[in-house]
Amino acid sequence: MTVREQLLGLQDIQYRDFTAKLVPNIDKADIIGIRTPVLRMMAKELSSADADMFIKELPHKYFDEYNLHGLLLSKEKDFDRAISGLEQLLPYIDNWATCDIIAPRSFKRNTDKLLPHIYEWLGSNRTYTVRFGIGMLLKYYLDAPSFSPQYLEAVAEVKSDEYYVNMMIAWYFATALAKQYMDTLPYIEGHRLSDWVHRKAIQKSVESRRISDEHKQYLRSLK
Q: What is the C-alpha end-to-end distance of the chain, expressed in Å?
């Protein structure tokens, strides 16, 4: 039985319909409807041979296949293999859910080697490649000792008309305000972000439990 046949055998129609509302740019016919925990279990249980064969089968037909592919890449322990796999997959990613599911375990131990790739992704003309790059800075570079103010500047310099890029920029700065408040605040005080991203970052910050009431009150005044 092929990986696709296994996925089709796990179809949940109700979950497919729910997922279609979350990723409206994806045709419902291209969504099988499989919950993420089920995909994670499948990624864990696939044999190495089946997994290797599957990730070479680009492009995929189904949204769920791309999510499984991302989860298989996330398991990759070798940094160079993870990067190689990502460079093959990223051009095919066309939605936020697949983009955000990918988090190769080897990246956390190789943040120095990862940075040049992140800067390349930030400069891409592909929406979800840029979003992925910002997501990596959010995930791996907002805590000490990996944090540097230069990463705030790199994200602030990203200019886009794409909703899913701008939403990730807003999430990045909201998270940065929670983790690196003093370094991040000048970007809000100086209105360094686009109007929409500026307001959305403040909104997400005010909704966060990780930011003090005092800081929230001040951020509200900067809208």
A: 55
pLDDT computed for residue 223 by the predictor: 87
pLDDT at 159: 95
Distances (CA, A) of 84 to 90, 139, 173: 10, 20, 29
Inter-residue contact 84 to 22 (CB < 8 Å): no
Which residue's structure tokens are 């701008």?
166
Rounded CA separation 107/77 (Å): 9
CA dist., res. 209 & res. 87, Å (int): 36
**pTM higher than 0.85 for the full model?**
yes
Domains of the chain, first to last: 1-106 (no CATH), 108-223 (1.25.40.290)
Give the CA distances from residue 72 to residues 7, 15, 116, 159, in Å, rounded to whole numbers and listed in that order: 14, 22, 23, 31
pLDDT at residue number 1 = 83
Report whether 37 contacts 13 (CB < 8 A): no
Question: Residues 55-71, buried b or exposed e (16+ Cβ, 10 A)?
Answer: beeeebebbbbbbbbbb
Gyration radius (Cα) of the chain, Å: 19
15-43 per-residue burial string, b: 16 or more CB within 10 A, e: under 16: ebeebbeebeebeeebbbbbeeeebbebb
User: What is the rounded CA–CA span in Å between residue 211 and residue 217?
Assistant: 10
Quickly count helices (H) and strands (E) in the chain: 14, 0
| Residues with pLDDT less than 50, the chain | none
CB atoms under 10 Å from CB of 88, counted, come to 14
